[in-house]
Amino acid sequence: MIVFPNAKINLGLNITEKRPDGYHNLETVFYPVHIEDALEVVPLNDSDKEFNLQVFGTSIAGNPEDNLVVKAYYLLKERFNLPAISIFLQKNIPSGAGMGGGSSDGAFMLKLLNDKFSLNLSDDELEVFAAKLGADCPFFIKNKPTFATGTGNVFLEINISLKGLYILIIKPEIFVSTRDAFSLIKPAFPEKSIKEIIQSPVEEWKDNLINDFEKSVFAQYPEIGKAKEKLYEAGAIYASMSGSGSSLYGLFKAPVENPELIFQDYFIWQGEL
Ligand SMILES: C[C@@](CO)(OP(=O)(O)O)[C@H](O)COP(=O)(O)OP(=O)(O)OC[C@H]1O[C@@H](n2ccc(N)nc2=O)[C@H](O)[C@@H]1O
Ligand SMILES: Nc1ncnc2c1ncn2[C@@H]1O[C@H](COP(=O)(O)OP(=O)(O)O)[C@@H](O)[C@H]1O
């Protein structure tokens, strides 16, 4: 069985409060985008191993046991009698980019195992398992535009469609630590909620829809801030960093021609929303 875990972008991101457990409450809109990994599971016969993982494409740091697809397998194996499996993962989504690629792989693994081995878990139950894998994971179970609060785990499905627009995603060769990015923020509630702002036309988002991580991340890595300006120069009607970076996206009315000439040596992906 093969599935295609997709990425997400954040439409606005407000860090509202620091919690007693050290985590932060936030408000954001998660929006799915079609850049995809590929994840396949087949039975593993004649082996004394419980799993075998092969990763292709972009490399991921860490041991196989640290991979979120393997963590997802063990999470379900604690409760269900799962057989040994071979896992093939083609990584296309840049890792640690604020695009939720690893989180999506983990969530899609839960869904795949649920279907393949007829575990009969509901989406709500899968979301509970996904929350144990990481803050961003539960969103990818239903995978629909969502207004998220709490640590990013309390969901309200929202009615927003960016269909017809084009998206250009870029990522400089800079790694931003999510943990460090949070530590540089002074949490505050925004004057106007993201939920309200995104009901206005996209052309009006530029000065209103804010990602709170941008200020400190751009101060630390001016190149990322300059890349955002270049997205506007290329004609974006709205541009932002996604999550804690370092990826950025621009929304456009028409595809950008030859983006590789503007963003040399960057990861680049362009598609229709
Ligand atoms: C901020 C977001 C917005 O989408 O960033 P991106 O990962 O997309 O960049 C996410 O909520 C990130 O989710 P995720 O990347 O799954 O975070 P985790 O691995 O669970 O946490 C990494 C670290 O970030 C901090 N953290 C994370 C989430 C949160 N609500 N408050 C925090 O303070 C904690 O220090 C934690 O140890
Ligand atoms: N299947 C996977 N794909 C990508 N990263 C993974 C995966 N499994 C575990 N990770 C780890 O998760 C972290 C990045 O998570 P990811 O969701 O891709 O990025 P982000 O949280 O920035 O959106 C990295 O530290 C990486 O080592």
From TrEMBL:
<keyword id="KW-0418">Kinase</keyword>
<keyword id="KW-0067">ATP-binding</keyword>
<feature type="domain" description="GHMP kinase C-terminal">
    <location>
        <begin position="208"/>
        <end position="253"/>
    </location>
</feature>
<dbReference type="GO" id="GO:0019288">
    <property type="term" value="P:isopentenyl diphosphate biosynthetic process, methylerythritol 4-phosphate pathway"/>
</dbReference>
<dbReference type="InterPro" id="IPR014721">
    <property type="entry name" value="Ribsml_uS5_D2-typ_fold_subgr"/>
</dbReference>
<comment type="function">
    <text>Catalyzes the phosphorylation of the position 2 hydroxy group of 4-diphosphocytidyl-2C-methyl-D-erythritol.</text>
</comment>
<dbReference type="GO" id="GO:0005524">
    <property type="term" value="F:ATP binding"/>
</dbReference>
<feature type="active site">
    <location>
        <position position="8"/>
    </location>
</feature>
<comment type="pathway">
    <text>Isoprenoid biosynthesis; isopentenyl diphosphate biosynthesis via DXP pathway; isopentenyl diphosphate from 1-deoxy-D-xylulose 5-phosphate: step 3/6.</text>
</comment>
<dbReference type="InterPro" id="IPR036554">
    <property type="entry name" value="GHMP_kinase_C_sf"/>
</dbReference>
<dbReference type="GO" id="GO:0016114">
    <property type="term" value="P:terpenoid biosynthetic process"/>
</dbReference>
<keyword id="KW-0547">Nucleotide-binding</keyword>
<dbReference type="GO" id="GO:0050515">
    <property type="term" value="F:4-(cytidine 5'-diphospho)-2-C-methyl-D-erythritol kinase activity"/>
</dbReference>
<feature type="domain" description="GHMP kinase N-terminal">
    <location>
        <begin position="67"/>
        <end position="141"/>
    </location>
</feature>
<protein>
    <recommendedName>
        <fullName>4-diphosphocytidyl-2-C-methyl-D-erythritol kinase</fullName>
        <ecNumber>2.7.1.148</ecNumber>
    </recommendedName>
</protein>
<dbReference type="InterPro" id="IPR020568">
    <property type="entry name" value="Ribosomal_Su5_D2-typ_SF"/>
</dbReference>
<feature type="active site">
    <location>
        <position position="136"/>
    </location>
</feature>
<keyword id="KW-0414">Isoprene biosynthesis</keyword>
<dbReference type="InterPro" id="IPR004424">
    <property type="entry name" value="IspE"/>
</dbReference>
<dbReference type="InterPro" id="IPR006204">
    <property type="entry name" value="GHMP_kinase_N_dom"/>
</dbReference>
<feature type="binding site">
    <location>
        <begin position="94"/>
        <end position="104"/>
    </location>
    <ligand>
        <name>ATP</name>
    </ligand>
</feature>
<dbReference type="InterPro" id="IPR013750">
    <property type="entry name" value="GHMP_kinase_C_dom"/>
</dbReference>
<comment type="similarity">
    <text>Belongs to the GHMP kinase family. IspE subfamily.</text>
</comment>
<keyword id="KW-0808">Transferase</keyword>
<dbReference type="Pfam" id="PF00288">
    <property type="entry name" value="GHMP_kinases_N"/>
</dbReference>
<dbReference type="Pfam" id="PF08544">
    <property type="entry name" value="GHMP_kinases_C"/>
</dbReference>
